[in-house]
Amino acid sequence: MKKVQDHYFKMAKQDNYPARSVYKLEEVQKKYGILKKGNKVLDLGCQPGSWSMYAAGIVGASGQVVGVDLTDVMIGRPASSAGSAIRFICADIMMPETITLIKAIQSRFDIVLSDIAPRTTSSKWADQQRSLALSIQTHAVAVELLKSGGNYYCKVFEGEGFKDFFDAVRRDFRVAKIVKPQSSRKESREVFVLGIDYIGSRTGEPE
Question: Which of 17, 105, 187, 197 has the largest CB neighbor count within 10 A?
Fold first, then answer.
């Protein structure tokens, strides 16, 4: 396992990404093509920036990436050299006013991404429940801001309440899958929930 971890860590350094987590997005992109040129992308919990940078390279100059995170380390960092501009919002996705901040930049998105994770503690159960709460919120944001036909890709720790969360995603998307990327550590409880083709409805709101 150490060799696998080192492999992806070294790849990230060679490819000029801040973290190995980029390959968890790249793998699903190669298989399902969830990102497309010109897409408007929302990246929740975007630090340290690998997913935003990768997405920017895919969507290109005609697209847009908006990243949201509690920390502002990436504010002012240059956008992907070969992709779209990246806009960063320093805010808490659990706070209702964050939606207003996002909408001030872009009202609807083609895809919502989230590699967000809680600060871990000594309690695995508590960590899993906090991860689940964050994931439920990213799903709520996706329902609020996705265009019809949009996609959703979110990290979550498996455990109590996971089935209910996945069932909720299945109701809102034509296709829903549980993905365990090769670059994920095998001992980790993290999986990714993929929703393809948003079919949920928002009454009284234009697309």
Answer: 17
